[in-house]
Amino acid sequence: MKHFKTFTLGALISFLCIGCGIYSFSGISISPDVKTFEVRQFSNQAPIVEPGLDRRYTIELQDFILNQTNLDLVTSNGDIIYEGEITQFYIAPNTATADQTAAESRLTIGIRLRYIDTKNEENDLEQTFSFFYDYPSSQLLTGDTAETAFTEIFERITQDMVNATLAKW
Description:
The chain has three helices and six strands. It is α/β, with parallel strands linked by helices. Strands 1, 2, 3, 4, 5 and 6 form a six-stranded mixed β-sheet that branches. Strand 5 and strand 6 (125-136) form a beta hairpin.
């Protein structure tokens, strides 16, 4: 009897999830007719150009969507298309010390996104996403500091983009 109740409860939960349409526990909800996505190379249009940052972000976005959805990555004619450019890359003092020197610096990166849904134009979106990383001013933005900064900023921007386009948050 205990196994029957467990089986019945599991079946009921499965049917409820199926009945709600295509849904994942990550919050991503994709129309069943959308099967592929395309991420076009993001160009670097920021006043300060960090070499390779555009390629790195393009790959990070591709990997994130591949890992979070069941969509197939294509190089052209995708059902949904991500394209855009890096528009901001700057470092500014964030906090000061008593002797008027910067104690902390803030790297800010902004990325302009154009999202195209070829199956439903109402879902198209054009928006800028940005995030920052604070680090001690005594450190240069190189090596591990740069790697950590880029990783944290890109994770946040990518999550925000996917939430705005696929999760509709």
